[in-house]
Design a protein that fits this description.
Elements: H1 2-7, E1 17-19, E2 32-34, H2 37-64, H3 72-99, H4 122-151, H5 161-164
Antiparallel strand pairs: 1-2
Helix pairs in contact: 2-3, 2-4, 3-4
């Protein structure tokens, strides 16, 4: 599990191997080529931005829709939003990785010298998906605490739901009160 936690902040796999297309008759077999590193960096950046934006939207939905202050209904909704954030961050790498245009690095395959379209394999995306589960869990709690402790501080009822929920229901825990 520690490896997946570290993978979240690790650099993207810029030297990821891929299988080259089959050779024409009489050509030598070239088993491995490389994915285009700039495209992989773009995909990893999109994964990070979409995950972060999704977490903020889930936290806003969690705190600004209910009206009762830290009621049992809110606590259930908070945990449901926590699970939703984890599942969202788990799914984002797969969806972004599958639907982003990816190409092979030009010249990395002798059987096809020009860059060609190739999908990212699931085994390259899966560690990032598992890291997304952990990141969704941590980010939801941190963003939730940030909004309830700093955005609503001193704002009174103008802060909407953030004023009423001074902390996280873990259960009903406020880090500033102990």
């Amino acid at each position: 599990m520690w490896r997946y936690f570290l993978h979240l902040w690790a650099l993207p796999p810029v030297d990821a191997h891929m299988g080259c297309p089959p050779p024409l008759p009489g050509e030598a077999i070239d088993p491995f080529g490389f994915y285009d590193a700039t495209r992989i960096l773009d995909v990893w950046s999109w994964i990070a931005w979409i995950s972060a934006g999704g977490i903020v939207l889930i936290v806003l939905t969690c705190y600004l829709l209910p009206r009762a202050s830290l009621s049992a209904r809110f606590v259930r909704g908070w945990y449901a939003c926590l699970v939703a954030a984890m599942l969202f961050c788990f799914a984002v790498p797969f969806v972004v990785g599958r639907f982003s245009p990816m190409t092979a690095r030009a010249g990395s395959c002798t059987t096809r010298v020009a860059a060609f379209a190739v999908p990212l394999p699931f085994d390259l995306l899966f560690p990032r998906m598992l890291a997304g589960l952990l990141w969704g869990f941590l980010a939801f709690i941190v963003v939730s605490l940030f909004f309830t402790q700093f955005v609503a501080r001193g704002a009174g009822p103008r802060a909407g739901g953030f004023f009423h929920y001074r902390g996280c229901p873990v259960p009903r825990w406020n880090p500033l009160e102990g």
